[in-house]
Amino acid sequence: MQPLTGFRDFLPVACAERNYIFAKWREVARRYGFVEYDGPLLEELDLYKKKSGDEIVRQLYEFVDKGERAVALRPEMTPTLARIIAANHRNFRKPLKWFSIPQVFRYERPQRGRLREHFQLNCDIIGEPSAEADAELIALAIDVVRGFGFSANDFVVRISDREFWTELLKIEAVPSERWEDILQTIDKSEREPRTKTRERLGGLAGPVFEILEKGGESAKLNRIIDSLRARGLSDFATVDVGIVRGLAYYTGVVFEVFDRAGKFRAIAGGGRYDQLIAQLSDNAVSLPALGFAIGDVVLGEMIHENPSALGELEASVRSDRSIEIYGVIAKEERRAVALAVIQQLRDQGYRLDYPMSPTKVPRQFQTAEQLGAQTAILFGDEWPNVAVKKLASGEQQLVPHEELVAHLVAHR
RNA sequence: GUGGCCAUAGCUCAAUGGUAGAGCCCCAGAUUGUGGUUCUGGUUGUUGCGGGUUCGAGUCCCGUUGGCCACCCCA
Description:
Number of helices: 15
Structural class: alpha+beta
Number of domains: 2
Helix content: 25-40%
CATH superfamily of the largest domain: Bira Bifunctional Protein, Domain 2
């Protein structure tokens, strides 16, 4: 009995790790004034076909439902967001800053850092054309990764602008149907031998290599870098025109986040998609937009290989799982009064556990320890007093049960 | 969709073609009211599944399923 290929069970520790990652994502996104939204897990297949073409269907988790509708599990959040925005944008003052933590799906063979399902933080800014929005989004991406304990020695954001390439293609009068293919080749040029790239580019190879070597510079990118510098974040970013990104809908600035050591695949990526909302709404609505996504799988791998980031995660996991108090029922005849006190403490918000069947006292202390309790409260011969024991120090004192809450609050 | 490696107890892993084991975890006891350390004892297997070779297969061969990794592709 196993989960389906590429899908994960989240046992308590894994779930606590996930909670830690989600909590950090939410915290940082909110710091930037983003508000959370969500959408359906399942969408019409056409939503993805319209944007990316039929060939993407090969990688989609898609099927025909009982109503004969062609549907797909969402492979990414952006089309859903664009759909929601096209339908609802009049209700909101621009610009919008929205985030979501969807689980997304792809039908492909699992490999390192890549499953058939993962969670990703998606942050998008809608209705803001200025480069300051690109800078704001990139700053957020940096702070999201920083939030897990990483520094400028650990990761870098590589920023580019597709317009470097689309301008060239215009000048060279390349027919638009070839653009996608050429952008893909440039995107891949870092990972492939130069001769192969040259072969694919043909006559464009010369100017493309020239731009790749010279690097890019533009007023727009300068403004973004200046904005990051003003925030003290310039050490985390570099301009790299080799970044193109695979998705067809990006129109301007694009960026990807990498670990400095180059051990992992890209941990986050995003960019501007000014035409997508118009495209999906058949030109009913046109709004400039940009966004980025960071997934839980690669990020999790990276955290696990960085001692200090791992330490922060483990501390969070411990406290997420721990109870505060264990009620030791030393005499079964005290069970009823113990339950009354336990209920009272739980009403006060304490996380508390106790044995549900008669259990030897040493065993109960072991359980208390194992559950991470800081305090044990003994119900036994001392009644109407209870013994309050601090498990870290071993110190123990008798407290009248009606004074217990006040005592605990005072010694928290 | 293509290729490579792997599959033994809940977990990590042993076992020249010759009786399937260890550590950890879990349970119980030493200790009938005080934890983290000890010590003792105990449970757990269709060796992924199906076939073949052999006197004899966890071990060799074929198939299959699953996992990992790479490619394709990329959220």
